[in-house]
């Protein structure tokens, strides 16, 4: 159970459902397939680390869908500075998170490029944090992610080998909304990082039904309307198979 | 993770290259091998002496009710919970859009309590619209073969065995119409059982479910015949029972799976090609190996002779295959001295490649592996993929372009200015998410097409890369082109895992989806492919496989290419 996500009716879902549905939901808002894949992966690592963040993902999808948040300025981002490409918009974590992690991973792998990045007015920092968790699983370095919540509370998390260690702040505050300014930086890897939460891997998670329904609604946008004609051209036998 | 070594140190003969193997034409001619998932599962069942029992069999005179079959392995138990229902004739369809079935099933992790069974009795019959728990690993459903079901009941109830010739036209009593696993509808993720060798392999839990459903179909038919006429009833002859597999109707859903699991597909095909290369590299064949090959070939000829389908194209291919097998028998007869020479299997394969049909060549692949279980069986393990598909953001654009030029030349060669090359789009219908394929220029929904557009996307990527600075990193490139992120990841992966891609255009007019299905289903271990259109096929699974009370280590591995049992139609008890 992810407590913050489950205030009302709940639904049990598998990690596979979480990942694939987030991927489709992202596509449903118009994000590219590749960014959808990253969103799904980030959500998986959110669950594995017990972060109550599904609402942050659902809100981040809303923000992209209704145009409150948007892309980043690529010219600035290449140097490690992520700001929204249009004035008046928040920076979408769904766009910025994967690219920020790319930059850091590239720096870790090749020694080229910035080993720290900043984000200005990012809409949902928990989504970026989960991107960092996902990418850290395969990196030899760790990633520190820090921001100050809208209430002014400092949050500092270190992601190593897919595992979250909270240096400042509390778990329950991770999913709070932005816009906030956020920083990310490579940190040394420490040997012996704890293994992922095997209970979640075995049993999936329980989330708020309403929040999950919001994600499902976006995913459903990827479905094509059924017509009599399409039913006839679908694979399979006739309407009745009496053989 | 295995990477391709075309001249593996273990084999003097190289692997067949992916540009030859990963083509639709060849995938559409594939056969099961001893590496197929059903074969490896049954081997394990026998080796570990699994015990399979019906621990609950509460069916009424019409065969409706609840059953539980429990498979006891050395470490754990798994239970098939089945619900047998009345199915109105007008609801009988094999399609995904069906809403009712003759029987529905869940594979339970362990032994279910009465409460578990009661809960699932409310959910399992609903299939995709039910919700499940992590204690459930797989969900499935099956419909009766009306061609056989009543016929077999009638015969058994009158003290007669059914005529094998009649059974041979179908090969199963029920056919599954879907088998779902890996976290769908709230069921357990594969990560729950990824460290359990008995079910860790790809689709192993699903195929255990199918095996247990086959057990159920045998017991159900005997139950109904016995209830119909207890005085005259005879049980199925074990030889007939063994010949009755379980059917399956498979449509478009399998194609997107193959595209979205490139590493897995690489592992499967790389393993098979490695096995083939190992056998072709055998320096000399022993008398025992030659005898094994000839015996299997003889059986395969009978099997192919009994393989009858209505599809004209497949019928012609079967006829040609029959001729191919006759030639193979001539080439490998005892009078044929080259079989006693150096690397006889390689010589045979080379001859086949220039003389036989593609189906003939692929059947030979299967036959060649049969005598060499000790050499290749271990390649059936370890196919699972437990890591994500990684993207290397530090790769330069120059390197990325090189990868495309080297590994995706097949994609670059397709002329997408020709409308026929983009004729189709694949999509999920809102109607039970049924995968469908539409005509791009006459049907709505192309903007929501599934990403089966690998070749077209690679061309788009290559064109865009041409405008980027060669020294730029992938990370920087993707900042400006997030729409290409998925295909960059794929190209990086495809260059490392060369059997990962089907090297054809899946949205073109020439694409026959059943070729994709057959490639996958053959790897599952299916046989008797019976195409019903270019979009779907029926198959038979576990036909000839040992029965639950025959799971003996010495007896479980020689059931490929099953043939009609020689049992008189009027054998009485």
Structural classification of chain B: alpha+beta
How far is the first residue's CA from the last residue's CA of chain A? 47 Å
Largest sheet of chain B: 9 strands, mixed
Count of helix runs of chain A: 9
Oligomer: heterodimer
The count of strands of chain A amounts to 10
DSSP helix fraction of chain A: 40-55%
- What would the average pLDDT of chain A be, to the nearest integer? 91
Order of helices and strands of chain A: EHHHEHEEHEHEEEEHEHH
Stretches of chain B where pLDDT is under 50 for at least 5 consecutive residues are 1-7
Mean pLDDT of chain B: 94
CA radius of gyration of chain A: 19 Å
Largest sheet of chain A: 6 strands, mixed
Determine the number of helices of chain B (DSSP H or I, runs of at least 4 residues): 21
Outline the fold blueprint.
The complex is a heterodimer of chains A (243) and B (573).
Chain A: E1 10-13, H1 15-28, H2 33-48, H3 54-65, E2 69-70, H4 74-77, E3 81-82, E4 90-91, H5 93-110, E5 116-122, H6 125-136, E6 142-148, E7 154-160, E8 163-168, E9 180-187, H7 198-203, E10 205-208, H8 209-220, H9 228-233
Parallel strand pairs in A: 2-4, 3-5
Antiparallel strand pairs in A: 1-10, 5-9, 6-7, 6-9, 7-8
Chain B: H1 18-21, H2 24-27, H3 37-47, E1 51-59, E2 65-72, E3 77-84, E4 103-109, H4 114-123, E5 136-144, H5 149-157, H6 164-168, E6 172-180, H7 204-228, H8 238-243, E7 245-250, H9 254-260, H10 262-280, H11 287-305, H12 312-331, H13 344-355, H14 358-369, H15 373-376, H16 397-407, H17 409-412, E8 424-428, E9 435-439, H18 454-465, H19 474-480, H20 485-496, H21 513-524, E10 527-531, E11 537-541
Parallel strand pairs in B: 6-7
Antiparallel strand pairs in B: 1-2, 2-3, 3-4, 4-5, 5-6, 7-11, 8-9, 10-11
